[in-house]
């Protein structure tokens, strides 16, 4: 019963976050409870859930209730039309980090010769019912495997640079829509495609909700007055704490996924085969497993005896 109560509490916390009522309280409740549910399921590791935990942690600190929330309406001291710049770049940086590691991880022999796509797409096509839309697409053919493999590699490599350019972000948005919708219908990976599509708005101008609301009301939009920090002023203690915390977090997010290269110095480890240090590393799975513990890898099939 406590699991049912936990899920209901997540639902209540989500409503509180959505309407912005007691935002900080419900953000911490959602983060701690979701992270606990994620941590106790030791049988299944999912990078997507790990990313959700990180974004929930960010939500505990960023002033997401400063506008368009009940907190801003009930408590004028909370209301604000601006926010510290680090809040925006923290969210953008985390998303770009995921895409960067996705690019880096795909630069291996298996992916470059489309072996994972050969395994996944052939299985997806052969198990699809006759007459379904999947059967109308030649997913089982080698050219399609190469197109999808190299298309995913190019998308991961250029998404963030293209989203940050004013002339290129429409192309990035269209490509992202095709990429994530394809993932949703082909792989059925839960909420992740929709979350990443929503996160594209992080690369818009920060005042885009105000401009959209003004356009809907047919009124001229006013840009909020920005307050820039003077370079001659020394950092306050609070600013130093924020800088140190951001530095430690950035170092962890960059170095921790690379720990498998340290393990290789002490033995013939390959994270793509033995999963050593594969968790929390933004790695995609390159195998499927089924009883009796027979692993079908992108290169070959073999049985492991313990």
Would you write up a description of this structure?
This protein has a 3-stranded antiparallel sheet with strand order 1-2-3, with no helix packed on it. The longest helix is centred in the first third of the chain and has 22 residues, at 85-106. The protein is globular and about 60 Å long. The protein has 306 residues and is mainly α. The protein has 14 helices and 3 strands.
Please describe the structure with a list of short key phrases separated by commas or semicolons.
single chain; 306 residues; mainly alpha; 14 helices; 58% helix; globular
What would a concise description of this structure say?
The chain is mainly alpha-helical and 306 residues long. The protein is built from 14 helices and 3 strands. It is globular, with a radius of gyration of 22 Å.
Using DSSP, what is the number of strands? 3
List low-confidence stretches: 289-306
- If strands are numbered along the chain, what order do they take across the biggest sheet? 1-2-3
Which structural category do the helix and sheet elements fall into? mainly alpha
Whole-number radius of gyration?
Answer: 22 Å
* Average residue pLDDT: 80
End-to-end separation: 36 Å
Mass-distribution shape: globular
Number of helices: 14
Amount of helix = 55-70%
**Order of H and E elements:** HHHHHHHHHHHHHHEEE
For the largest beta-sheet, the strand count, sense and barrel status come to:
3 strands, antiparallel
What portion of residues belong to β-strands? under 5%
